[in-house]
Amino acid sequence: MNVLELTRELVGFNTVSTESNAEMAGRLVCLMESLGFATGIQSVTDALGVVKQNVIGLCAAHDGRTDGGLILSGHMDTVPFRPDQKATLSPVEEHGRLFGRGTCDMKGAIAAQVVAASRFAGRPLARPLRLVFTFDEEVGCLGAKALRDARLVNADCAIVGEPTGLTPIRMHKVYWVLRVTIVGRACHSSDPRRGVSAVKAAVRALAALERLEPELGRTGPRGTARGGPGGPVPGNGPPGFNAPRPSSGGAGEPAGIVSRAASGGCVDRDARSGFDPDGTTLNVGTLKAGVAHNVVPDRCVFTIDFRHPPGQAPVAIRERIEATVCAAVQESGVGVEVEQVLSELPFETAATAPIVRFMEEATGFTAGGVSYSTEAKEFASLGIATVIVGPGSIEKAHQEDEYVPVDELGRAVELYARAIERFSLLADPE
Ligand SMILES: [Zn+2]
Predict the structure, then answer these.
(1) Phi and psi at residue 11, in whole multiples of 5°?
(2) In angstroms, rounded to a whole number, what is the distance separating the alpha carbons of residues 27 and 237?
(3) Which residues surround ligand 1, an ion (CB under 5 A)?
(4) Looking at 21-25, 230-234, 323-327, which range is the least confident one?
(5) 296 alpha carbon – ligand 1 mean position (Å)
């Protein structure tokens, strides 16, 4: 089984989140069954009547046990694409890069996981191995949430193959979204004094939030000032896995996501220095107001997302945002309502977890954190020690020229195969 060929084949399935992924799911089921996996499909019909499928392949332990062991996982869906862009369903290989929609996010990782598993076909495993491929990650991790809610998977540890340039990630920022509604009083714009402009009040609120952001950003994890970057782990992995990656540019460069390249090379396993930006961030992503240029607007609605490193209380940040908005508009004569519209689970796997230590040793990088959310949090919420590590760069995910470096596909196969050996093949993964 060839990882490049399989990546090309998987990219050929149109699994944009609006489409059914059943065809790709069926292909993965066939592949896994050919390797001796027992397979299961979780089918869901989405709100638009489209069939979406999670697939699970299970290779039980030699004694028939199905609990524990290792999960390798990826999502099958992709973001949309235009036919005239470089990354489409017809992959193109140029200068060591495979361009195509989903090459790095994340069909390359899925292909690498299947190829790695194929190396163990027919061999007795001490612990179970599962391949878990999901739908609709790009529109809210819906597949992984369905798996979680149905409790269809269990394991000791999991690897989610999102593009990290093959460096390990063990935590996300916590991610909440608030919707703020400011209510004033409409009137004819010929005499604005008769109304109360919700937009004018919102402008004050937004200016106050802009002043708040650096204050929140200065507060690092658990309320401490943030240190500098962490360092590479003295590697004892195979050649190619233990060298720190270049600090900028370069194919597969995991820009802005991991700790790296400090002097000394010692590992502070409790350091939370892997986030960039390191503190809490705010974004006002949508704003809607007004019905006509000659009406004083009585309503302005905007959404704020905030993201903070694990260890802080999101409720406290929400309260600061609410207090900031209310104080800014209090003399405007408007009403304010703040609703919470999304609160994603936190994700943090202990730095001492065997899967984290293994990945640090195998890759030569300290496990860091990312500011975006992945399905790792759903696995972690089931008590599964989870790391994120996969080929390609998150900077190339969702881009018109999305690509995965071909050499990283091969290295991903080696890395996942080593993980299978350690956590499924051997009787004692310690
Ligand atoms: Zn992804």
Answers:
(1) -60, -30
(2) 33
(3) 105-106, 162
(4) 230-234
(5) 43
Question: Crossing angle of helices 3-11/22-34, nearest 10°?
Answer: 160
For domain 180-344, the CATH class is alpha beta
CA distance 3 to 23: 19
CA–centroid distance, 399 to ligand 1, in Å, is 12
Rounded to the nearest angstrom, the distance between the alpha carbon of 107 and the centre of ligand 1 is 9
Amino acid letter at 67? D
- Ligand 1 centroid distance, CA of 91 (Å): 18
Query: What pTM does this model have?
Result: 0.82
DSSP 8-state code for residue 48: T
Task: Provide the token pair at 18.
Answer: 């609006």
- Cα 273 to middle of ligand 1, angstroms: 23
CA of 135 to the centre of ligand 1 (A): 11
Distance CA 262, CA 193 (A): 60
Q: Ligand 1 centre from 10 Cα, in Å?
A: 14
From ligand 1's centre to the CA of 162, what distance in Å?
Answer: 5
CB atoms within 10 A of CB 153: 22
The CA 124 to ligand 1 mean position distance, Å, reads 32
- Secondary structure class of 415 (helix, strand, coil): helix
For residue 274, what are the CA distances in angstroms to 167, 330, 371?
11, 39, 10
Under DSSP, is residue 190 helix (H, G, I), strand (E, B) or coil? coil
CATH of domain 3-162+374-425: 3.40.630.10
Compute the distance from residue 101 Cα to the ligand 1 centre, in Å. 11
pLDDT per position as a tens digit, 134-177 = 999 999 999 999 999 999 999 999 999 999 999 999 999 999 99
**Could you tell me where the DSSP H helices lie in 237-341?**
314-329
Burial 202-228 (b: 16+ CB within 10 A, else e): bebbbebbeebbeebbebbbeeeebee
**Element (DSSP H or E) covering residue 99:** strand 97-99
Mapped onto helix, strand or coil, the DSSP state of residue 412 is: helix
For residue 194, what is the DSSP state? G
Domain ranges of the chain: 3-162+374-425, 180-344
